[in-house]
Amino acid sequence: MKTTAPMAASADRPLRVLHLDSERPWRGGEQQVLLLMRRQRTRGDEPHLAAPAEGALAQRAMGEGFPLHRVPMRGTWDLGSVLAIAKLHRTLRPDVVHWHAARAHALGAMAALLSRGPALVLSRRVDFPVRRSVGSRLLYRLDIDAIAAISEAVRGALVQSGLDAAGIHIVPSGIDAAPLLGPFDRPAARARLGMGESEIVALNVAALAPHKSQTDLLRAAAITKERCPLLCVWIVGEGPLMSALHAEHASLRLGDTVRFLGFRSDVADLLRAADLFCLSSRLEGLGTSILEAMAAGLPVVATRAGGIPEIVAEGVTGLLVPPGNPDALADALVAMASDTVRRTGMGGAARERARGFSADRTAELTRALYLRAIETHRGRSRERERLAPG
Predict the structure, then answer these.
(1) Same domain for 165 and 134?
(2) Is residue 70 within 8 Å of residue 58, measured between CB atoms?
(3) Model confidence pLDDT, tens digit, residues 319-356
(4) Which range of residues forms the domain containing residue 111?
(5) Distance (Å, rounded) from C-alpha 37 to C-alpha 42?
(6) Is 350 helix (H, G, I), strand (E, B) or coil?
(7) How many helices (H) and strands (E) in the chain?
(8) Across the beta sheet with 276-279, what order do the strands follow?
């Protein structure tokens, strides 16, 4: 099938970008897509989104006036969605198609085989190697003009899987710190949120999912309960482990030592009212929830999973412990909760460090990657034409 190649890339020409995201819940990856699309539009580029209509990202993007193309993406072999995406390639003629999730990658790659034309970019946000299944290995053997890894840990996992390091570029996730800046009446907010005057609140904001391992956090809280009675843990988020975590909470008799807050729209206020942040993940690509906490001036207690050590400076902005070790996590929580001077110093250092991880910088790095991907794609197209019979 003959297709029209995109115009030559230049730094100042507006780019038309088709983002593909197959996820339905609101998670960190979806937040990154929306932050990126906002900045692309502000710059004068033209971002489009292809996503399931009922997904949280689609609903928010549509509410902000972004062009939404409803593609159900019901499964890896959803051929109807493959055809719909291929049609978007032909009708929109984007300069770049940007895949943001595993299913989006699978469907988008098949669509690209049917309708060549745009440069292809994949964001990878997980720090484990590519699965060894035939399908997964094949997907990464198909043309991808550039891979954006959100951390060195993610890049390392891809290289370990046999991918060419030259095609993998570090584009760290970024945050919008604006909601965390400006005047804030912390005592009033703590009172409104139900935080006691003497309570030391450790906040956890994460999906209730196996790799976030709040089970380890609950077990650590059971240890800290006797050693540091003023420390309490507030867990913000929802997910598939909600029932299991509530059962573990009851089994450990944690009572108000640990509170589950569910999904919250006031996370910025919670961060600014809390005393420290804690993440107990066993797998973590980078950790934007940590970055937001740091931007709010919170010291961090977290595991050394994935890309976390790339953002948390040990002993400077927080304390790091081995993943899957509730005892070590409890020790770090007690050490942080017991030292107000340490929390204050680390919190200030954390705020400064978070400045280097802005959504604006992520958008700039992403656009530079797009331009590189477009040139790579044009080179591949010329090579295919050269090798074509006749």
Answers:
(1) yes
(2) yes
(3) 999 999 999 999 999 999 999 999 999 999 999 999 99
(4) 16-174+358-380
(5) 9
(6) helix
(7) 14, 13
(8) 258-262, 231-236, 200-205, 276-279, 300-303, 318-321
Contact predicate 34/15, CB 8 Å:
no
Tokens 């970008």 locate to: 17
Helix (H, G, I), strand (E, B) or coil at 8: coil
211 and 71 co-located in one domain: no
Tell me the pLDDT of the chain averaged across its residues.
94
Same domain, 74 and 204: no
Domain count, the chain: 2
Q: pLDDT under 50 in the chain at which residues?
A: 1-7
Give a yes or no: residue 386 inside a domain. no
Residue 117 lies in a domain: yes
User: With DSSP H G I counted as helix, E B as strand and the rest as coil, what are the percentages for the chain, rounded to 5?
Assistant: 50, 15, 35
The Cα 63–Cα 330 span in angstroms is 42
**Domain identity same for 205 and 349:** yes
Burial code (b: 16+ CB inside 10 Å, e: under 16) for 7-34 equals: eebeeeeebbbbbbbbbbebbbbbbbbb
Determine how many CB atoms are found less than 10 A away from the CB of residue 177. Answer: 19
Do 38 and 76 lie in one domain? The reply is yes
Structure tokens at 356: 């280097």
pLDDT at residue 10 in the model: 60
The CATH code of the domain that includes 143 is: 3.40.50.2000
Residue 64 lies in a domain: yes
Q: Shortest CA distance to 100 belongs to which of 28, 191, 10, 4?
A: 28
